[in-house]
Amino acid sequence: MDRAVRIALASKTVTALILPNDLQELPYQEPLRKHGTAHSGIGYRAPKTTPHATDLDAAAEILNAGERVTMLVGAGALGATEEVIAVADRLQVAVAKALLGKAVLPDDLSWVTGSIGLLGTKPSWELMRDCDTLLVVGSGFPYSEFLPEEWQAKAVQIDLKPSMLSLRYRWTSISLVMPQKR
To answer: Which positions fall inside the Thiamine pyrophosphate enzyme central domain (predicted)?
Structure first.
């Protein structure tokens, strides 16, 4: 069970435990130490990942140069609400949310425009349509037709998973690895 929890936390995914019914009804006994058994310990602390200083400087230059900066947050930003709010306040930007990132920010913040995409809001659509700079935080939003036109916006993408970088939009700038926080 400890291993399943650790895998779920580290991979930000689901894991499954299948226990036979008769085993569930037995009283707990400490497992024996013998050949072929797997033992596990409790606890997990995610490693700290920090982008290179030159990448942070380049991202800051792009974001500071933008006149109509927009932020898109996704499920990868879950647990980073305070940081997302701090960045949005610092940049004075509006934020659209991918459906899987809906819980990142409350909808009652004046600068949150709601969801984007097939189930999105008109303000989020207009935000993407009119931006010249896009900051994407933890999102692999799948519907590129709801993002700015190709080459319209310079962009910075922050994500933990390199496989998610530049997946939906041809970035004209850089991608950063987002620090994990637990």
So the answer is: 56-170
Q: What is the mean pLDDT of residues 70-99?
A: 95
Where are the domains positioned within the chain?
53-177
pLDDT for the residue numbered 130? 96
Contact 80, 12 (CB under 8 A): no
pTM over 0.90: no
For the structural domain made of 53-177, what CATH number should be given?
3.40.50.1220
**Measured distance CA(149)–CA(169) in Å, rounded:** 9
Most confident of 2-16, 108-122, 156-170: 108-122
CA of 21: how far to CAs of 4, 26, 74, 110, in Å? Answer: 19, 9, 38, 51
Give the C-alpha separation, 72 to 75, whole Å.
11
